[in-house]
Specification:
Blueprint lengths: L2 H11 L6 E5 L2 E3 L5 E5 L6 E9 L5 E9 L6 E2 L7 E2 L8 H4 L2 E2 L16 E9 L2 E11 L6 E5 L6 E5 L14 E7 L8 H9 L3 E5 L14 E2 L1 H12 L3 E11 L1 H12 L3 E7 L19 E3 L2 E2 L11 H7 L10 E6 L7 H14 L6 E6 L34 H22 L2
Parallel strand pairs: 2-10, 13-14, 13-16, 15-18, 16-17, 17-20, 20-21
Antiparallel strand pairs: 1-3, 3-6, 4-5, 4-9, 5-7, 5-8, 9-10, 11-12, 12-14, 18-19
Length: 424
C-alpha cells in the first residue's frame, strides 16, 4: 500500500494519527529561515496555520494562511504556496513577514527592547479548531556576544564583540574585522544592526551622534571629526585585527557612511542602505542652522530639499565617493517614497565609473522595496505611516511587505559576504 494510502487509512478511518506542527529550529537568530511544517493530515485536506506575536510595544500582530495537504498528508511552508491568506506564493517565512497589527492605530512593528528575544506562536487549525501548536523564539544576539559601553574621548556608543574574540593584549588570530554603525535621522543608538553583524563574527560599534545622552538633540552641525575619533578608537581595540574597518549606515546614515568613506583612509569598505549621493540639510523639524555636517569648523555644502535638479548646487553637495579606499555596496528600494534611494545609489555608481574607481561597487536594487529595503532580520514587514520622532510628521516609507521582506532575505547574506571579502 502506498504511504499516502496508509496515512489516509490511519488518519481518516481509525483516527490514529495525531496532527503535528513543527518549527525547526524552535530557537533561531532573527535572520534565520526556519522550517514550518504540519503533518498527520488527510491528503488534500485544507487547513490553516496561524501565527501571532506581541511586539516590543505590547501590540498584537497576526497572520494566517490556508494550505492544502500534499499526498503524504503534510504541509511545508517552504515548498507550498498558500491557497489563501495573508501572503501569496511560496515563502518559508511568509507567516512571519506578512503579519498585520490587530489595532488600526499601529503604524510599525516594534522589536523587543534591549535586544530581547521575540516569541512567535503558531497554531494548526482544522475546521476552525486548534489541532496542534508550536512556537519560535527569534534571537537578536547570538550566544556569547558581549557588549562594551563606550563613554570615553567624547564618544557615545556600544561595542558588540563576537564570542571567542580576545578582549586584551595585542591583536592576534582571535581578532576580527570591525564595522562602524551609524544611524539615520531618528538619532539614538543603532544597536540592532550592530548586534546582527556581531552575531556573524564582526566587531561592531553602534555609535550615537545625536539624540542620545549628552549629544546634540538634532541632526545639525555634526562635526565629522567625531567619527574620525571613533575610527581611531576602534583601530586601537585588541578585538579588531589589523585596523580592518568598514562603515555602514541607513538613510541619512547611508549618506553619512558614504561621506566618511570618502574622507577617512582607515575605512576599507562602505555599506550604505537607502543612501543619498549628496549631503542633505539639517534635519528634522526646527534646526538652529541649515547644514548637517561640519569639517574643521566649517559647514559642508548641502543640497536644499527644494533645490533638487539645480546642477550647480548638486555638484557642490555631491559626495566625492571616488576617494573611498575600498569597495562600496549600496542597498536601495525602487519604491522608496521617502526619497529616491535607488536613483541616488545609481548616481553613486555612475560617479564611481566616471572616475574609474578601482574597487568593486554595486547597488542592490529591489523593485518593490521602499525605505526599509534590506533591513536585517525577518519580522513583520507591513507598515503604515509612522511618525518621525523629531519632526512629528507622518512618513511614507513606500514598498510592499513582500518587497521589503524579499529585499532583506536576499541582501543579508550578500552584505555579510561583501564585508567578509572586503575585510579579510
Amino acid at each position: 500500500m502506498r504511504a499516502s494510502a496508509i496515512v489516509a487509512a490511519a488518519c481518516g478511518w481509525a483516527a490514529l494519527c495525531a496532527q503535528t506542527l513543527t518549527v525547526d529550529p524552535a530557537r533561531a537568530m532573527d535572520d534565520e529561515v526556519v522550517s514550518i511544517r504540519a503533518a498527520g493530515l488527510a491528503p488534500g485536506e485544507r487547513v490553516a496555520i496561524r501565527a501571532e506575536l506581541t511586539d516590543g510595544a505590547g501590540r498584537r500582530w497576526a497572520s494566517q494562511a490556508e494550505f492544502v495537504a500534499d499526498p503524504e498528508g503534510a504541509v511545508d511552508a517552504a515548498k507550498q504556496a498558500p491557497a489563501a491568506g495573508s501572503y501569496k506564493d511560496v515563502s518559508a517565512m511568509g507567516l512571519v513577514w506578512s503579519m498585520m497589527p490587530s489595532e488600526r492605530s499601529v503604524a510599525l512593528y516594534q522589536p523587543p527592547g534591549n535586544l530581547g528575544a521575540q516569541r512567535i506562536d503558531f497554531q494548526l487549525q482544522r475546521k476552525g479548531q486548534t489541532a496542534a501548536t508550536a512556537s519560535l523564539e527569534q534571537l537578536a544576539l547570538a550566544e556569547g556576544v558581549r557588549t562594551v559601553r563606550v563613554e570615553e574621548e567624547g564618544l557615545r556608543g556600544v561595542l558588540f564583540v563576537p564570542s571567542g574574540v580576545a578582549s586584551a593584549g595585542p591583536a592576534g588570530p582571535a581578532a576580527h574585522p570591525g564595522v562602524l554603525l551609524v544611524g539615520g535621522s531618528n538619532g539614538g543608538l543603532p544597536s540592532r544592526p550592530a548586534a546582527w553583524l556581531a552575531s556573524h563574527g564582526f566587531v561592531a560599534l553602534a555609535l550615537a551622534y545625536f539624540r542620545y545622552q549628552d549629544l546634540p538633540p538634532r541632526l545639525e552641525a555634526i562635526p565629522l571629526e567625531y567619527f574620525g575619533r571613533a575610527l581611531e578608537w576602534m583601530a586601537r581595540r585588541p578585538e579588531i585585527g589589523g585596523g580592518n574597518l568598514a562603515v555602514s549606515g541607513t538613510s541619512r546614515g547611508g549618506e553619512l557612511a558614504l561621506q566618511l568613506g570618502s574622507m577617512f583612509p582607515r575605512i576599507r569598505a562602505v555599506v550604505a542602505y537607502v543612501p543619498a549621493n549628496v549631503r542633505y540639510p539639517a534635519c528634522c523639524g526646527f534646526t538652529s542652522v541649515p547644514y548637517a555636517w561640519t569639517w574643521q569648523g566649517r559647514p559642508l555644502a548641502f543640497l536644499p530639499v527644494r533645490a533638487a535638479g539645480r546642477a550647480g548646487l548638486e555638484m557642490r553637495a555631491e559626495i566625492a565617493v571616488e576617494n573611498t579606499r575600498g569597495p562600496i555596496l549600496a542597498i536601495s528600494g525602487e519604491d522608496d517614497h521617502l526619497w529616491h534611494s535607488a536613483a541616488m545609489a545609481d548616481a553613486v555608481i555612475a560617479r564611481l565609473k566616471r572616475h574609474h574607481f578601482e574597487y568593486d561597487a554595486e547597488n542592490l536594487k529591489y523593485p518593490h522595496a521602499g525605505h526599509s529595503a534590506g533591513r536585517p532580520g525577518i519580522e513583520p514587514a507591513w507598515h503604515g505611516h509612522p511618525t518621525h520622532p523629531l519632526s512629528g510628521r507622518p512618513m511614507d516609507l513606500g514598498g510592499t511587505p513582500r518587497g521589503d521582506a524579499e529585499s532583506s532575505l536576499d541582501s543579508m547574506p550578500k552584505v555579510l559576504a561583501f564585508l567578509s571579502r572586503s575585510l579579510k
